[in-house]
Amino acid sequence: MKIAAIMMAGLAASALGGCIQVKAPDKPIEINLNVKVQQEVVVRLEKDAKDLINNNPELFPQ
Q1: Can you tell me the distance from the alpha carbon of 41 to that of 47, in angstroms, rounded to the nearest whole number?
Q2: Residue 31 near residue 24 (C-beta atoms within 8 A)
Q3: 20 within domain boundaries
Q4: SS3 sequence, 50-62?
Q5: What's the distance, CA 61 to chain centroid?
Q6: Would you indicate the residue range of the signal peptide (predicted)?
Q7: pLDDT band at 17; cut points 50, 70, 90
């Protein structure tokens, strides 16, 4: 009885083994992390521009 159950489980596993296919994607997976980097760059540029305007008011007359 126990041997028959093991044989049936092995037969079921071998029958299902051909149904599953694992294939690597054609293109690499891309993770986009530009959001935080762009925010930091914008903040730094904004601060540098404000400092430039405050230190050189003759360059940017109002």
Answers
A1: 10
A2: no
A3: no
A4: HHHHHHCHHHCCC
A5: 45
A6: 1-17
A7: low
The amino acid sitting at 39 is Q
**Which residue range forms the structural domain that includes residue 41?**
33-57
C-alpha triplet 43, 44, 47: angle, nearest 5°:
85
| Residue 15 belongs to some domain of the structure | no
Round to whole Å and give the CA distance between 22 and 19: 10
Is residue 28, in this structure, part of any structural domain at all?
no
pLDDT reading at 12 higher than 80: no
Domain total of the chain: 1
**Within 10 Å of residue 23's Cβ, how many Cβ atoms?**
5
Cβ contact 40:46 at 8 Å: no
